[in-house]
Every structure is written in C-alpha cells, then in structure tokens.
Backbone:
C-alpha cells in the first residue's frame, strides 16, 4: 500500500514538471513565432549554444555550477517544510563575506585563503536563510515573503560595502572591492575553462542526497517537512531540524557566491548579482526539491542561460528573450504546483469540516 | 543548345562556390546599452547595419551587455560559436580588462575598441582603437543655436565634467558666440550617462529659467530633445539624429557616422590587413573632414539663409581657414586658457586635458 503511494508520487514528481516544461516550451515557441523568429531555429540555436560543442558544454557547465548550489538553498529547507526564495540574497552576502575573508587572508597560503573564503561565504549564506526560516518557525513570519525581501536587503548590503568601507578607489566606473590576488583565486579544472565551483556543486548535491536519503537526520528532516505536527508528537526538535536544514541550504548559496568572487570576478561588486539565485529557485522547483534531479536540471538551465547571446546574434531577437523563456517556465511550474496542491487544499477543507462536526458534537 | 560542363569543371565550380559561401568575414559588435536609444548605442547599431551593403561581411551583435565578465563571455561566444574574426567593442568600460583578456586568448582575432587608451608594449597587439573628434560639428550646431535663440540664453545638460564632455560644451558655445557674442549658456551635470529622470528635471528647470535652446551630452539626449519640444523651445541633438522627437523645434545636431569607420575597417580587413601586423593603424581617428561625424539635417525652423551661413562656416573649417580653438580664449572665471595668436588643432592631445568652461558658460567643472 505505502509502496504504491510512493511510486505514484514519484510518477507525479516526474510527470508534473515534465508537463510544465512542455507547456512552457510550446508557449515560448509561439512567442518566438509571434516576434518573427522560427521557433525550431530558436530551439536549434539554444541547443547549439548549450551543447553544440565542447566550448558550448563548458559554457553550460560553468553556469550550472552556481545553479546547483543555489537550487539547494531552496530544496533543503523545502524538504523540512519551509519554502524560501532568498537564494539571491544568500548568494550575494556569501560573495561579500568571502571577498572580505579572502582579502584578510590574501597574504597567507593559498589553501588557507580559499578555505576561509569558503567558510565565510557558507556561514554568511547559511545564516541568511536560517534567519528567514527562524522567523517563520518562531515568529510566524511567512518565509517566502521574508526571504524574498531579504534578497533586496542582501543586494543593498553588498552595494553599501563595495561603495563604502570595502571600496577600491581604483574601480571608478564600477564600484568594487579590492581584487583578490590572482594566485589566490579558485582555479580551473585542467584542460577546460570550468572552475572548481562545478566540483563543489556536484559534491554538494550528492552529499545532500546522502544526508536526506541515507541518514537518520535526513529521515528527521523529511518527517518534519511531511507532517510537522506528527514530528512534534514524536518528540523531534522541530526548530533545530528546520534551522539546520535551512542553514545548510543557505550555506550552499553562500558558497556559490564565494565561487563567483573567487573564480570569476576576483572581487565583489554589483556584478556578482547576475541572477543565479533567482534561476536557482526555478531549478529547485523543476527538480521537485530532489538533489539528484537538481544536478540534471541545472545543466539544462545552464544551457538555456548560455544561449541568451546567440538568440540576439543569430535571430536578432531582443536580449530579454531568454528572460521571457525563464519567466514562462517559472509560471508553468507554479501552475503545475498549484494543480498538485489542489488535493491538499481539499484535505484541509475536509479536516476543517471534521473539526466542525467534532465541535458540534461536543 | 545545352551548356555542357565537364565533371572537373563542375567540381571546380562547386569548390569556388563553397569557398565563397564559407568565407564571409564574421564581425561581432557588443553594445553596453539598448539598440534603440536614439543615441550612442543606436549610432553604432546603424553603423553595423550598414555593413549589410558589403556582400563579404556577416555582422551580428549583442545589446545591453554589462561592463563585467559578461562582455568577455559574449565576445568568446562570438569567436567560438559564430566564428567572429573581428570584434567591435563600443563601450568605454569594455576595454580593460575584458577586451584585453579575450584578445590575449585569441591572438588571431582583431579587436577594435571605441575611445579607449592603448598602452604600447603592454596591451596585446591585436587590439586597435577608433574614435572621432566631433568638436567642429558641435561648433556648427552651436552656430545654428546662436543664430536661432531669441532670449540669448541656452541650456546644456551634460553627464560628467570630463574632458570629452567639456570639449563639446566649449565648442558648442564657441560656435554660438561666433555669430552671437552676447549669448550665454547654463550647464547642468547629471552625474552619469543614462539618467533620464534627472535629465528631464534638468531640462525642465533650464526651460523654466528662460532658456530657449536646449542641448546636451549624455548617452542619448532623447529626453532633453523631448522636453524642449514639449516646452515649445528649440533643441539640438547629439550622438544620433533625434529629429523625429521634435518635428517643430529640432534645429540640427552633432551625430556620429560610424558606418564610414566600420566600412573602412571591413574593407581593410577583407584585403588581408591586420592591426596585429601593423597594416591597420593602431589608432584610427577622424574629424569632420574624414566624415567620422556630421551635422544632422536641419529642422524646419532654420531658414535657408542661416543654413547658407553654416555651410560657409563648414567650408572654412574644412579648408583650415577657420579653427574651433583659437586664442585669445578666456574661461568663465576670466583666466586666459588659450593666449592670443595661438590656435589648437582638434587632434591635439592637449585638448584631452581640458578642465575649463569657456567664457559665457554658467556652471562649474568641479562639483
């Protein structure tokens, strides 16, 4: 009986996002036709830009790395029952903290510098998401709203620091922190343009899968996420579990920010806020909060992100076209989630009806 | 009678056809702003579009590319996915370190940057710089404004008090004063290249102060020209032809003619030249004479007689009997900046250190 249910929900976990993606692709195709481009040509170009050659594969994987880490910042808390969309905020504060730590330890050995950067980025990002989760857990503040607003606060903090206390006077046109020496930056995987952030992303996804599926702690997280009341009755420390899961998720986004600083820009500036956090939310929902599916979905969305330019160059489409695609995909996913939620909505109504009956009997 | 081709002839034809088909010179353009800004970016887009006239060129572009590593990615994609042999990077902030870095990675590709400074012996050899001197055209636009103003007061909305902008303010004013010695001009600096709201506020406030000709130097003076038209006063444009925005009050403007520059580069490269080998000059700069820039078509308010006067001035500028910067010139604090008897050619690098506003301009360089 239970086996039946779980295989059903597994089917749903694949079928719902798949339907959403097909709907999104169809809508986007219609949009392309409407603005005068051949939909098939556009999809061929997206494929070419994402997977057409080793160069293109590297482009996709480079973008997949931060997406994997950012998606975990939504997926992990979601498994404990908290929906957060504070990925971009955790990403930028992680990057900012990593830049500060990197600059402070730049005179030391490379490994120490990178390690402090990773720790600083992870702790900052983790604290950021744990804060939003804590607000919901202990103060009843909706984490979707608070974490969304925390994104703006995170970006404002970044700007405040790069234009104020951490400002490098040499960065006139584009306010930024002092650069981290090139010797102390995160390197590239030999024979490629891909930095080690991809390794971090893959390890983080695998580790999260292991924690969730193969440890007692993971069992507890899923119990809390599945039915918080039941978990409380069993005597599980709810707050502690929610906060730990949220902290670990946020730490991944913070680590992505660290990678952006240590491997790509070499310094923190507004440029690090390139939207990976927001696309990470889309990845997490497409992957239905599963760490292994996040690995795959990140690479696909990495390819989509990598194709923004080619649509301009080969089809003379506006530069916002790929954002339109992301938006359509996000709406389709939300719609499919809403449809899936109809059942629980019914259940809530039933429960309310039962309670009314019980009250009447009393 | 049918045309008979031997197998060998047919194969040879196929081969030439395929060589011709795969040989188009692929040229990529990156812009920092939108393609339809009626200003700096659109002037470059127009130049890129004009390359369609050359059958051997395949040109493509990306707009709204930030001055971050994003522009490196765009340029790399152009090289590796579209086979670009030439890249034109049109925004100032693209050069260092982004163009320089990608240029080192791809020594076979030629990069040309608009308006940057190249360090000989340090920067990669496959990078060239192009730019134009538009002072003479601003001078003629200023003449037009000086002839048209009734109140004798003009307004200039500028982005930043940097030499390039100060040159335009001063040459415009010198042109106006050459025909109307009592004219004054108030300058407002907004602080950045694209700040439409502040540009609109500055333009309105200048109009409130009784100014009857508005002009400016920003990413695109579209807002300035629009405000002028709405307030029923005159406007002159900059960067691109903005006449569509002000069918009544548009006088003329100083605009770039990048198509001339891009055609010249395309022809040189098609003929096998390269900036890396020195067969294309490291720096390509041009003036009115070189047709790097031009005056926008006159608006309806400018009478034939006045157009005539400006055409005569243009002739004198072209044949060198008249120059924009001729002493004695005093700045607006009364200090002599160019002594009597001295003239400065507009190509003279000394002008790139300009830090003064000429007599009659109300405003300050230091903010």
Residues:
């Amino acid at each position: 009986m239970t086996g039946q249910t779980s295989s059903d929900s597994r089917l749903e976990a694949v079928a719902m996002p798949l339907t959403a993606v097909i709907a999104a692709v169809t809508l986007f195709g219609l949009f392309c036709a409407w603005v005068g481009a051949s939909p098939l040509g556009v999809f061929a170009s997206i494929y070419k830009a994402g997977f057409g050659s080793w160069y293109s594969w590297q482009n996709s994987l480079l973008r997949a790395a931060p997406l994997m880490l950012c998606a975990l910042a939504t997926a992990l808390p979601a498994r404990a029952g908290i929906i957060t969309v504070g990925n971009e905020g955790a990403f930028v504060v992680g990057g900012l903290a990593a830049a500060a730590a990197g600059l402070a330890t730049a005179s030391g050995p490379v490994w120490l510098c990178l390690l402090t950067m990773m720790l600083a980025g992870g702790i900052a990002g983790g604290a950021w998401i744990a804060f939003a989760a804590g607000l919901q857990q202990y103060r009843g503040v909706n984490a979707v709203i608070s974490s969304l607003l925390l994104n703006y606060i995170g970006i404002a903090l970044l700007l405040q620091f790069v234009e104020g206390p951490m400002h490098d006077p040499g960065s006139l046109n584009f306010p930024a922190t002092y650069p981290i020496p090139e010797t102390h930056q995160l390197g590239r995987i030999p024979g490629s343009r891909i930095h080690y952030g991809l390794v971090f992303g893959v390890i983080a996804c695998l580790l999260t899968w292991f924690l969730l599926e193969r440890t007692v702690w993971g069992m507890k997280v899923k119990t809390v996420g599945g039915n918080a009341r039941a978990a409380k009755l069993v005597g599980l420390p709810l707050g502690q579990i929610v906060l730990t899961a949220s902290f670990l998720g946020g730490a991944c986004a913070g680590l992505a920010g660290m990678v952006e600083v240590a491997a790509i820009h070499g310094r923190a500036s507004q440029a690090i806020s390139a939207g990976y956090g927001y696309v990470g939310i889309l990845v997490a929902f497409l992957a239905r909060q599963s760490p292994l599916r996040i690995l795959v979905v990140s690479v696909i969305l990495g390819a989509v992100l990598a194709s923004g330019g080619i649509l301009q160059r080969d089809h003379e489409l506006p530069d916002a076209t790929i954002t339109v695609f992301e938006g359509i995909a996000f709406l389709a996913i939300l719609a499919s989630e809403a449809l899936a939620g109809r059942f629980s909505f019914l259940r809530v109504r039933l429960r309310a009806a039962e309670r009314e009956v019980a009250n009447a009997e009393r | 009678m049918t045309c008979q081709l031997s197998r060998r002839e047919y194969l040879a034809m196929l081969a030439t056809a395929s060589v011709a088909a795969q040989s188009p010179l692929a040229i990529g353009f990156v812009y920092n702003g939108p393609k339809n800004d009626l200003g700096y970016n659109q002037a470059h887009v127009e130049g890129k579009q004009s390359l369609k006239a050359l059958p051997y060129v395949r040109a493509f572009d990306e707009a709204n590319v930030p001055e971050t590593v994003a522009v490196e990615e765009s340029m790399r994609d152009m090289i590796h996915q579209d086979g670009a042999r030439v890249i034109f990077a049109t925004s100032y902030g693209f050069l260092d370190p982004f163009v320089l870095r990608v240029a080192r990675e791809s020594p076979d590709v030629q990069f040309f940057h608009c308006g940057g400074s190249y360090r000989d012996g340090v920067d990669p050899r496959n990078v060239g710089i192009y730019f134009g001197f538009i002072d003479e055209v601003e001078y003629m636009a200023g003449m037009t404004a000086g002839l048209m103003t009734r109140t004798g007061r003009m307004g200039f909305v500028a982005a930043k008090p940097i030499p390039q902008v100060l040159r335009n303010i001063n040459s415009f004013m010198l042109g106006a004063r050459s025909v109307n010695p009592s004219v004054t001009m108030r300058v407002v600096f907004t602080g950045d290249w694209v700040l439409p709201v502040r540009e609109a506020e500055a333009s309105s406030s200048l109009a409130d102060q009784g100014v009857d000709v508005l002009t400016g130097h920003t990413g695109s003076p579209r807002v300035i020209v629009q405000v002028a038209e709405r307030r029923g006063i005159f406007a002159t444009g900059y960067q691109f032809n903005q006449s569509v925005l002000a069918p009544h009050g548009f006088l003329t403007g100083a605009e770039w003619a990048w198509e001339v520059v891009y055609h010249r580069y395309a022809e040189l490269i098609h003929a096998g030249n390269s900036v890396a080998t020195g067969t294309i000059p490291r720096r390509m700069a041009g003036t009115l004479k070189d047709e790097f820039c031009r005056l926008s078509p006159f608006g309806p308010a400018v009478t034939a007689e006045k157009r005539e006067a400006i055409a005569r001035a243009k002739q004198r500028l072209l044949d060198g009997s008249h120059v924009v910067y001729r002493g004695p010139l005093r700045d607006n604090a009364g200090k002599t900046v160019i002594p009597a008897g001295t003239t400065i050619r507009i190509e003279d690098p000394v002008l790139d250190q300009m830090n003064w506003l000429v007599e009659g301009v109300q405003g300050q360089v230091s903010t």
Observations:
- The CA atoms of residues 197 and 224 of chain B lie 10 Å apart.
